[in-house]
Design a protein that fits this description.
CATH architecture of the largest domain: 3-Layer(aba) Sandwich
Distance between the termini: 43 Å
Radius of gyration: 21 Å
Shape: globular
Number of domains: 2
Bound molecules: thymidine-5'-diphosphate
CATH topology of the largest domain: Rossmann fold
Strand order of the largest sheet: 6-5-4-7-8-10-9
Helix content: 25-40%
């Protein structure tokens, strides 16, 4: 514990995906101190106060992977690549959500693990082999008994949500074939630091990995990254290709390059994080200034994309209904509910933006390209977006 140094305090926060029903509006929310720390030995960046998986990922989970074309296309492209490069016979996905990835494969060759049973049901109904379970040694053993070992394991935006990484990788070693490939995709710490996307930190994102820190944990389990791909997904993610470490493993140049870039940026140094924390404070000040100025002139501001990330921003900057009238979102599970903490209402997106709206706070900034194409009419008519990364701006 002594190795972990706090560097960023994002204030008191509610659980980010805990959207409130109208009747819950007056109830006290479960809150925690969102503090981010850096482990000077392992170089891992993590949040200080965590919740159990059971508290965060339950049968009432609102997040759906297939809510954006960007994600659907990304999964489709990766699936094509997996088929041609690795030719796996059996694939396991950890955090299969509503099946956006596994749907690209034949049903009998995929296994999905998704602990949120309301979401897992979606694929079960379609006769996929999915299990409403948390990823653990016990789950790996059960899958092994039923399906045998697998050739490929994929996990996008999930490993960083599980606190006990040692258990995660022990379980991987149980189920992965000796020559099998394990692919992890998660937001890149380097991009987070460069773009001041402090909203990558919230209760579910226990870790934001760098290649260096992830490699350090994997090595303990005799697992080795052999290739890294940089993706634009979620504001800059890394896709890590991993194998069991044998003499035969060929490490590609992309790993060396990524490690070099991270070292050059100072990802190993505490001073980098102290500077980042200062930029975050400045970002908050600037965002509040912009919003105040717009409200002073009686502008109506709404939000677009009721993301979990927005919860960090709204609660850290103390933005509420007096500033943002409502959020639009396409996710059924979030509609007619309230944003956690700030209690800003979430309204169903019906394809039309109210004419009175001249400014939109872009909660789903990670889908900026897709959303700007979708909202070209709003933009053409002079509508503006407010975005907090890399620094708060009106565009
Ligand atoms: P996302 O940024 O993927 O995740 P997180 O909640 O982990 O921060 O969430 C995107 C949200 O934005 C999701 O609720 C769906 C919504 N959305 C829209 O409402 N319209 C869109 O066009 C897109 C791309 C997303």
């Amino acid at each position: 514990m002594k190795n972990k140094i706090n560097f960023l305090d994002l204030g008191t926060q509610p659980l980010a995906n805990n959207y409130l029903t109208i009747s819950q509006a007056k109830k006290r929310e479960n809150k925690y101190k969102l503090i981010v720390c850096f482990d000077i030995i392992s170089k891992i960046v993590s949040i200080r106060n965590t919740f159990s998986s059971k508290e965060m990922f339950n049968n009432n989970y609102p997040y759906r992977s297939s809510m954006s074309k960007t994600m659907i296309n990304s999964f489709r492209e990766l699936s094509k690549k997996i088929k041609s490069e690795f030719r796996p016979k059996k694939i396991l996905e950890i955090g299969s959500n509503d099946g956006a990835f596994i749907k690209n494969f034949k049903k009998n060759m995929t296994i999905g693990i998704e602990p949120c049973s309301n979401i897992e049901k979606i694929t079960k109904r379609l006769n996929f082999n999915t299990y409403a379970k948390y990823w653990s040694i016990e789950t790996a053993k059960k899958i092994l008994l039923k399906h045998g070992k697998v050739d490929l394991i994929y996990s996008a935006n999930t490993i960083s949500h599980i606190e006990d990484l040692d258990e995660v990788f022990k379980a991987i070693n149980i189920i992965l074939n000796e020559n099998g490939v394990f692919i992890i995709e998660d937001p890149s710490l380097l991009e987070c630091l460069k773009n001041n996307t402090y909203d990558q930190f919230y209760n579910e994102h226990i870790y934001v990995f760098s290649t260096i820190s992830l490699n350090n944990v994997l090595k303990k389990h005799n697992l080795q990254i052999f290739k890294v791909e940089r993706l634009k997904i979620h504001g800059g993610s890394n896709r890590y290709y991993i194998k069991k470490n044998t003499n035969l493993i060929k490490i590609e140049n992309s790993l060396k390059l990524e490690l070099k870039k991270e070292v050059k940026f100072g990802i190993n140094k505490l001073s980098t994080y102290i500077k980042f924390a200062k930029r975050v404070k400045k970002s908050r000040k600037e965002l509040i200034r912009i919003l105040k100025k717009l409200k002073k002139r009686n502008n109506k501001i709404i939000g677009y994309g009721a993301t979990a990330k927005s919860t960090t921003i709204l609660n850290y900057c103390k933005i509420n209904r007096q500033t943002i009238d409502y959020f639009l979102d396409t996710t059924k599970e979030k509609q007619n509910k309230l944003m956690p903490g700030s209690k800003i209402p979430i309204i169903k997106y019906k394809g039309i933006i109210d004419k009175e709206v001249k400014y939109i706070f872009l909660g789903a900034w990670n889908f900026k390209k897709e959303i700007f194409i979708k909202e070209k009419k709003y933009i053409k008519n002079g509508g503006k977006f407010i975005i907090h990364t890399p620094k708060p701006t009106i565009i």
